[in-house]
Amino acid sequence: MSNLLTVSPSPHVHSDDSTRKIMYRVVYAMIPALLWSVFIFGIDALRVTLIAVAACIAFEYLIQKYLMKINPSVTDGSALVTGILLAFNVPAGIPWWIIVIGSLAAIGIGKLSFGGLGSNIFNPALVGRVFLLISFPVQMTSWPVTRQSDVDAVTSATPLGIIKEGLTNGTPVSQLLPDLPATSDMLLGNMGGSLGEISVLLLIVGGLYMLFKKVITWHIPVSIIVSVGIIAAIFWGAAPQNYVNPVYHLLTGGLMLGAIFMATDMVSSPMTPKGQIIYGVGIGVITISIRLFGAYPEGISFAILIMNAFTPLINTYVKPKRFGGK
Amino acid sequence: MLKTFKKGGVHPPENKLSSGKPIEVLPPPASVFIPVAQHIGAPATPVVSRGDTVKVGQIIAKSSSFVSTNIHSSVSGKVKKVDFQADSSGYPKQGVFIDVAGDEWIDEIDRSDELKKEFELSGEEIVRKIQDAGIVGLGGATFPTHVKLVPPKGMKADVLLINGVECEPYLTSDHRLMLEKTEEILVGTQLLMKALNVEKAVIGIENNKPDAIQLLTEKSKTYQGISVVALKVKYPQGGEKQLINAVTGREVPSGGLPIAVGAVVSNVGTAFAVYEGIQKNKPLFERVVTITGKAVSSPSNLLVRVGTPTSVLIEAAGGLPENSGKVISGGPMMGRAIASLDVPVTKGTSGILLMEKEQSKRKEYIACIRCSRCVSVCPIGLEPYLLMTLSEKQIFDQSEDAKIMDCIECGSCSYTCPSNRPLLDYIRFGKGKVGQIIRSRKK
Fold first, then answer.
1. Neighboring chain A residues of B366 at a CB cutoff of 8 Å
2. One domain for residues A179 and A103
3. Hey, is the C-beta of B245 within 8 angstroms of any chain A C-beta?
């Protein structure tokens, strides 16, 4: 024997799946919604996305290399995912410097201050979004016109914004309906909103791809969507003049983006199916509570961040059923 | 819907390269090293010394306690020395070195191929003969078979499961045995049923061996109480607890033995050894070994004498491929990488797997992304990610509470981890430490 044999403990084979492959699958799943966004909002959508991605990767590299003094791990694809998700959560017309600040908050505060990939408690992209929402409320709610809008308009409103404003002013639901998009437009994404949240259909397509590729399981998205739907239906059934049809809650705002892409973030969501359902129902309940009773028209970002904080607790108390256990 | 175990599991590429190769007899090598500890339990005590002449089948080391077995010579020739050499564990083990001369068997062994179905022995006699013949579980765990057949007081088996699953990728020795020694396995099963005093035996076989399922189903019709069940292909179905769960739906309690749910499991190879040991008076000194690997020129199934050096098997399969990086005794999921080709085949060697250099080294691991795959594939319902962290931080009281001792070391967690984390390495480390803590508490 001229060359030495390798000795290592079993197993000696590996599934050949990798964290990077998982991250890229998430990226592929977001591409249809991104293309739709470019179609609706124009080249601005692409510009914002590219800036966010470049900024997230750059900040990750610089902070790891010069502040943390560790080998930068930008090639794992996670900063890429965070960049696209952050872009998906802002209006397409947002100034470039705001998105750069958001990227710094996402990567610097949301991710690296906790230790980097795998150690962050909160979804980094949502940390960035909420940071921006609180710091730049005007720019963060200036919705650009869509290609179908009135040519004279410079900004439009989101369906949830119309509902929140109308109901707060005491307008009955029946008078708001003409201002709201048709169901088919909501499904397709012919409406105002954040860059990546508008096309419910394409977000679901991306979700099904991730489900098929086993990047996510059904537990989190389904429990969020079902709990939002049920609670919205109860209120609507009880007082249809004061609450809108649950279809609006399900098809508008960031619900699908949040349920499919944000809440399912592996790092910040629970490990067991049972824990994931508890987490999903929690997000659903908080989301619809903010939408119905809160000051903001939309609440899923806050809901996910709040439930992210509960994830370690859920992991501690919700254990898988042990084989042969009592 | 095919039956399978309820929780977890993975499906690595099967790579059963040698499944179409009939069993060939490998002639005795020039010299053998037969370890006296080839089983779980106390090592046997050598009863030969330098210069003694031995025949095939002669006892060379005697069982030293109840949980121990006899070791028989696999060759005829002269004892060169009784000394220590590394076995597949890498640790030096005591054993008998024999220089082979001729192939002279003890007279008691019936060397004919004739199938002998009838037996008139009592259960106790069968157990004693199994003990004398040095039979151990041939699935890899090498637990002495006679011990399994004597349930602890107050416990009673109601079903015997014969393990023909062979869920490890690459290995085909059990598959070939089921095809070529079908009736012998069935007679062996009947002997085990008699020893256990059970009316029912089920042979579990994964669905990737349709020929074996068909053949055994057909032949078992004339054997009272024996049935065959096809199982969905899923690793680690050959694990005792998983097989019991797949076939009967029962769950062996945490920390308990299969007998706690009325089941005893034996491998098909063990059933064949029982047949030979009792019907042919032939002690366990040879077994079928798969020698395989993607670069191996002729992957084969060989009937090999215990004590044969690994290098002889590799030569028989066309020699060591140029770019070999790792030699594994057993399958790729649970087998042991060996450091030297002098390591002998023992009763527990189901296969020799040669891996190419590129596949031999692990990739670097990165941070856990909490994807929870290790949790979902764990057949025991443990949390490997947590157990690894607890081992890293050396918080062993918590790992004990998290049932680290229930880990069966199947490796599904490490196999599936997208960050390449060495989950099982750390769990093994933790098990060792927690085991020490438990033992010191009992003192």
1. 19, 73, 76, 117
2. no
3. yes
Instruction: Tell me the residue range of the domain where A286 lies.
Output: 157-317
Q: What is the pLDDT of residues A10-55, one digit of tens each?
A: 999 999 899 999 999 999 999 999 999 999 888 999 999 999 999 9
Integer Cα distance of B71 and B96 in angstroms: 10
Closest CA to A102 of A88, A118, A120, A117: A88
Query: What's the predicted TM-score (pTM) here?
Result: 0.92
List the one residue out of B427, B337, B330 whose CA is nearest residue B384.
B427
Q: How many domains does chain B have?
A: 2
Among A12, A117, A323, beta carbon nearest to B337? A12
Do A167 and A309 lie in a common domain?
yes
pLDDT in tens, B25-67: 999 999 999 999 999 899 999 999 999 999 999 999 999 898 9
Asked if residue A326 is part of any domain, the answer here is no
B217, B246, B279 - which closes a domain:
B279
Closest CA to B311 of B337, B285, B288, B345: B345
CATH code of residue B196: 3.40.50.11540
pLDDT tens-digit map of A71-105:
888 889 999 999 999 999 999 989 999 999 999 99
Chain A positions touching B401 (Cβ under 8 A) are none
Reduce the secondary structure of A136-194 to three states and give it as a string.
CHHHHCCEECCCCCCCCCCEECCHHHHHHHHHHCCCCHHHHHHHCCCHHHHHHCCCCCC
B368 in contact with A, Cβ within 8 Å: yes
Token reading at B284: 């366990």
ipTM of the complex: 0.90
B325 → closest Cβ in A6, A18, A21:
A6
**Tally of structural domains, chain A:** 2
Facing residue for A322 by CB, picked from B362, B406, B414:
B406
Specify the amino acid at residue A97. W
Domain encompassing residue B151: 123-279
CA distance A290 to chain B (A): 29
Give the end of a domain, one of B279, B298, B315. Answer: B279
